[in-house]
Write a structure and sequence with these properties.
The complex is a heterodimer of chains A (316) and B (475). By secondary structure, chain A is of the alpha/beta class. Chain A has 10 helices and 14 strands. Classes of the chains: A alpha/beta (316), B mainly alpha (475).
Chain lengths: 316, 475
């Protein structure tokens, strides 16, 4: 649904996006992470056929972003960083205006507006001037606008940045629902917990270049090492000493708990558990130690910076 | 037809929204209502008083001219609001970020542009026409005679084309600015020429030359069409969102100018052999056009003798040789300073042509050469009408340096004309500023490679050779 190959964008002598290659299948969510000015917005603008790539190619919803820009824009819903609403219009007028620009029949648009607005808890504010909307309401309305023409692909730039927790939950639920209905979503966000919750895969972009592009689990594995599991026991360990199966390393131990680095949990965990039970250890819980995407993201940036420093040192 | 109507529909949707938005903004409504419904009455009152006053002294001609002039003013004021609306609708949207959702729709660039152009032009224009209607009604009530039909048609047409010109000019200005503040500063490039234009139109109107006023209409219409084309060429998603163009990058601009000027040549010889011929070949058509205008200028100048005759004494022109010797004795100009003075005079005219051309897409840039040729044609026609032999004069005093100077001037003017064409033509991937710098480099290439060397030679010939050739011929 979204395929880019070595997508590059120069603004005169500034390289904004550098050979970005992505592949997001239908019904998947990709979180595009990066610092401010990393090239996320430029990438989104190229994917929505607003900016032309300097080189490389991109295909969105089956259409080429350079040769079929109108088709790409018809198939894509974009939530922009600036919501850019017209303050003197009310929501009904505003959405009908965009419906007309997308060539949707008025009766269909009205029904869809009502459903979407009610879904986002804005049913009561249809006739309210947009200038009177709160920040969160504006953001939700911009999301409604992006979804109005039922696009196959959604490019969402910070969808919950200005929202209260309840509204953010509503939006996240909406994104889950869109994903379930087969929509492909590219999500730009600084909220890494949100990215972790919503995305299937993650791409980290730094200075225009993708430094990591993988599933969230694989990304964590690459950046934080093997998965860590913790076993909690009913009684103190008292000098427990068993040989661990291959692929398991003892990481830490306490009075009644122990942590392992496990390279392949699917293969090793049943064996490990069996050995623990055979050793008469009373296991209360055995669970993966949570590792945040934030830590992985920061590690990725640090490693990229170190890499650049080394390469710079070599050049010098 | 159905396809056209389908293509135009989104532009109509945008125009409708923008107009509705304008009518909700009191900052637009108040001045428009004031200028439409109150200002015409003030002008009526002024017209009536002035009409009665000048008629008391029998100066009916002034009254005749004053009534249409005030009508023009009544029409012009509301359309000046179109400038504000256009800047707001193009740059204001860019500044507030509300243009991006619009750019994300499947609309083509021209559909968005057209919608905005219509919404910026039509309401002020309608209010302008309404204001003129109110003014004319007031005249009828006060029993002040209306301007004649042709004049009325001219004023209405002028108002319409001026509105389109100002709005399309505002769009061009908008493409240079990323904030309303910057656009307002740049709008003086529209306001000042428009103010001059109105003064000039008023002058033509008081002169009472209807034919000239129609030519003014044609000129403004041409300019408006060119501006619409330029606006359309530069109203591109890439330019609207892709660049921070408020920043003046002198080093980058100079670099671009130098690269364009060199055209990839690695040595002056290569530049002369490879780059310059390509540039000159591109000037073939504009040069032919300028040559046609030069001939037209001479003919028009020659024909003005019938309108502005001047009696001369042919006896004074019998002995060219003595006259020439007397001139050379009284004005002994033969040093390098004289060559420099002639060269500078010619160069100055061509620079004026460049300045005029830059602000008018090359159109007004042809005027200096055309007017010079018109004056030459008039003088030759005058001599001929007074029975004075023109050929020896032309051969002796103009031909020796003219064969070098006139082609050089034609080439320089053609380069200005070409520059205007380039500015009015879409150049994908380039900003208007870049196109402008590159066009200027193209003009500089022609000047440095051909025109300036020819002008130097022509100046030397004019000072050192022409007088001798003239003496030989007259002897």
């Amino acid at each position: 649904m979204i395929i880019t190959e070595a997508l590059t964008k120069w603004f005169d002598d500034f390289l904004a996006v550098d050979r970005v290659s992505l592949n997001v299948a239908q019904g998947r969510v990709l979180a595009l992470l990066g610092q401010n000015g990393a090239g996320k917005t430029t990438t989104v603008r190229m994917l929505s056929s607003i900016l032309k790539p300097t080189s490389g190619r991109a295909c969105v919803a089956g259409f080429d972003v350079v040769s079929q820009p109108e088709k790409v824009r018809a198939a894509v819903g974009v939530l922009t960083e600036n919501h850019g609403l017209y303050g003197r219009m009310n929501a009904q007028e505003y959405l009908e205006f965009f419906g007309a620009l997308y060539g949707l029949p008025l009766a269909d648009v009205r029904g869809r507006i009502r459903r979407l607005m009610e879904g986002f808890g804005l049913g009561h504010a249809l006739k309210k001037r947009l200038g009177e909307y709160s920040k969160g309401m504006r953001q939700k309305l911009a999301l409604v606008r992006a979804m109005l023409h039922d696009p196959a692909v959604l490019l969402l730039d910070e969808p919950t940045s200005a929202m209260d927790p309840e509204s953010a939950r509503t939006v996240r639920d909406a994104i889950h629902s869109l994903r379930s209905s087969g929509r492909t979503i590219l999500l730009c966000t600084h909220n890494l917990a949100e990215a972790e919750e919503l995305a299937d895969q993650v791409a980290i972009i730094r200075r225009g270049r993708v430094i990591l592009n993988d599933s969230i689990d694989a990304a964590k594995h690459k950046l934080l090492g093997p998965v860590e599991y913790e076993a909690r026991l009913a009684h103190p360990l008292n000098g427990w000493n068993i040989s661990l199966p291959d692929g398991v390393e003892l990481r830490e131990r306490g009075e009644n708990w122990v942590r392992f680095h496990i390279h392949d949990p699917w293969l090793t965990n049943p064996t490990l558990l069996r050995q623990m039970l055979d050793a008469h250890l009373e296991v209360i819980s055995f669970h993966e130690v949570p590792r945040s995407l934030e830590k992985a993201f920061l590690n990725a940036l640090e490693m990229a910076a170190e890499g650049e420093g080394e390469s710079h040192g070599r050049t010098v | 037809m159905a396809a056209l109507s389908r293509a135009l529909y989104p532009a109509w949707v945008i125009a409708r929204r923008e107009v509705r938005d304008q009518f909700r903004d009191w900052r637009i409504i108040f001045p428009v209502v004031g200028l439409t419904l109150i200002f015409p009455f003030i002008m009526n009152w002024t017209a009536e008083r002035m009409f009665n006053f000048v008629n008391e002294y029998g100066a009916t001609l002034i009254a005749d001219r004053l009534v249409p002039f005030l009508l023009m003013i009544v029409g012009f004021f509301p359309i000046s609001v179109s400038l504000v609306i256009a800047l707001e609708t193009f740059v204001g949207e860019k500044e507030r970020g509300s243009i991006e959702p619009l750019l994300n729709t499947p609309l083509k660039d021209w559909q968005i542009y057209l919608g905005k152009l219509i919404s910026s032009t039509v309401p002020p224009l309608l209010s302008s026409l309404l204001g003129m209607g109110v003014y004319l009604t007031g005249l009828a009530i006060n029993e002040v005679p209306w301007p004649e039909g042709e004049m009325l048609a001219q004023i209405v047409t002028l108002t319409v084309v001026q509105a389109v010109m100002m709005v399309s000019g505002a769009v061009v200005v908008s493409s240079y600015a990323t904030s309303v503040r910057a656009a307002n500063l740049l709008s003086s490039f529209i306001v000042i020429p428009s103010a001059f234009l109105i003064q000039w139109e008023a002058l033509v109107m008081f002169w009472g030359n209807n034919d000239t006023l129609w030519w003014v209409v044609v000129g403004i219409l041409t300019l408006a069409v060119l501006l619409v084309r330029v606006g359309l060429a530069h109203f591109q998603r890439e330019e609207l969102l892709g660049r921070d163009i408020d920043v003046l990058r002198i080093r980058y601009s100079l670099g671009l100018f130098w690269r364009s000027f060199k055209g990839g040549a690695r040595s002056p010889l290569e530049w002369y052999r490879r780059v310059l011929p390509v540039t000159l070949r591109r000037l073939a058509l504009p040069s032919a056009l300028v040559l046609g205008l030069v001939i037209a200028g001479i003919i028009i100048g020659w024909r003005q003798v019938e309108r502005f005759p001047l009696l001369m004494d042919p006896e004074q022109f019998r002995d060219y040789e003595t006259g020439m010797r007397s001139v050379l004795e009284n004005f002994p100009i033969s040093g390098p300073a004289a060559v420099l003075a002639v060269f500078w005079q010619n160069l100055r005219v061509l620079l004026l042509s460049l300045v005029l051309g830059v602000f008018s897409f090359g159109v007004v840039g042809v005027f200096p050469l055309m007017i010079t040729m018109g004056i030459a044609g008039y003088l030759l026609g005058l001599l001929s009408a007074n029975g004075i032999a023109v050929l020896p004069l032309a051969a002796g005093l103009l031909l020796p340096h003219g064969v070098i100077e006139i082609p050089a001037a034609i080439l320089a003017t053609a380069a200005v004309l070409e520059m205007g064409t380039v500015l009015a033509t879409p150049t994908p991937g380039r900003t208007m500023g870049e196109v402008w710098v590159m066009a200027l480099a193209n003009w500089a290439r022609v000047m440095a490679g051909v025109v300036i060397p020819l002008l130097i030679v022509a100046a030397m010939v004019e000072i050192w050779v022409t007088p001798r050739v003239a003496l030989l011929i007259f002897h």
